[in-house]
Design goal:
Blueprint lengths: L1 H12 L11 H19 L2 H18 L1 H26 L10
Length: about 100
């Protein structure tokens, strides 16, 4: 009774999703080769190339965000620094170490 049920449960637990261990390896190799050839033919098709071109165009447009943001940030920082130096210099409060 219950020992048979336990054996069935153990058989189900042993299934790791990789198929039957007793399967002929030649069939697996043939399937793998067929899948590889199909993948190569799909990758070399014109539709895949068009999709890649579209993705590259999108990436080029998006990649400009970082340099633009960097230049705007640097311009803002140097502008603020320059403004503060001029403000202090005009009030006579700018400290220059070589003037003592």
């Amino acid at each position: 009774g219950s020992s048979d049920d336990d054996d069935n449960n153990n058989d189900n637990d042993d299934d790791d999703g990789w198929g039957n261990d007793n399967a002929d390896t030649n069939n697996n190799m043939n399937d793998t080769l067929k899948k590889q050839q199909e993948l190569n033919s799909l990758l070399s098709s014109s539709s895949a190339k068009q999709v890649e071109r579209q993705q590259q165009k999108q990436e080029e447009e998006r990649d400009m965000f970082i340099p633009i943001f960097s230049l705007v940030s640097l311009a803002g920082l140097f502008g603020a620094y320059g403004y503060e130096m001029l403000r202090l210099y005009s009030r006579g409060e700018l400290y220059l170490p070589w003037n003592n």
